[in-house]
């Protein structure tokens, strides 16, 4: 087991840790483009009355449910795949995840039909769910501790590029799709293009990971276990979708059921592995960080999934103009992720603490989201430029807090349990991603505007800042065999 505080010294045959950051950056770019393309495509489907969506009574709520079901799949494999990475190697599980994502995204663009489309998006999410916890663990393992948060921020900056690329590329790809595939099948082209690019990158990533770990990757065992889990989880998620689509269960209730399923997985893992991984699964301080992270993913996928619809509805603009304006929010991560990570490392070295900086950045994000809501509610004809500026500001703080929170999590957990801890972080946080698209879409259908959904996001963000105040430790527990009433470590 490699100690995260003493990464291997690069040699001519072992890639430098900065090269690892860049490879994972590319992975985040395509992984997020693959999933973010769904939002603009679904918006286009609604506007163009695509066959399998045109009969929906509440199209935005249904579109949000499609996004939520993807994230249900993504969420459910977070914790189990982190444990697989701790057992079989994070590089191996990450490689399996990326090949899976490329194949599943391509197949999403081949078959039509509502049930089939949703099932393929769920399958894509189930595979991509293994990326996050193993990516974070690789960065922490192979990066010097004093650059840990910066590395986490640089790698995940690819997320912002992926969201930006998806928002900008979707409209022209859909227009091209109309010329190449016809109007009713134009939505397929974005999935075919991005899935193909992801599959090409997965080949390069496989070769790189072999050099990184200096041994052949054990892919069969983690793939088999991940596939077995995916079969069960996909069946459960699609049963929820069938119940919502055929039996008339409200979309928001289906999202609640997905969250209950995720919490059941947490309970099982805590019962089976909690004693060995106390600081990752049972500790009060890390649990507060996990719960607070729900607001991070809620914000990302309110704007990441619906930003084009928010802008086009408020300003009565074209899809291309709305996509370019919405890209300001996603593009803010290009600055926010690495700067947030760098500031977190500086605060840690100077004794200011990551937690305090995280609280300040979270409050800044919440205030800017409130201002965005006020602007949409009280300005009769919103300006695309002003909306772009406000979305850039909210995105800047939103993306800065993510590496801060992740580095704080790594500080509190023993190295051998980093995969499980990051899996737990994202599993709990993904509750926000599951609920945000469908709840926000339902609020839009119920109220006729997006302001209520934006105010709800602001409330969740500001509430999460208070949760961070409860984090009192800055170091890992001395041993993961028990959880004392007052966790060991230095006071925050």
UniProtKB/TrEMBL annotation:
Domain Major facilitator superfamily (MFS) profile residue range list: 20-475
Location(s) in or outside the cell: Cell membrane
Major localization listed first in the record, in broad terms: membrane
Family matches, as Pfam families: MFS_1
InterPro entries xref list: MFS (IPR011701), MFS_dom (IPR020846), MFS_Na/Anion_cotransporter (IPR050382), MFS_trans_sf (IPR036259)
Matches recorded under PROSITE patterns: MFS
Protein origin, superkingdom: Bacteria
Membrane topology of the entry: Multi-pass membrane protein
Presence of keyword Membrane: yes
Coiled coil: none
Keyword annotations of the record: Membrane, Transmembrane, Transmembrane helix
Annotated TM spans: 20-46, 58-77, 97-120, 150-169, 189-206, 226-243, 249-268, 288-306, 326-344, 356-378, 384-401, 422-443, 449-469
This protein's name: MFS family permease
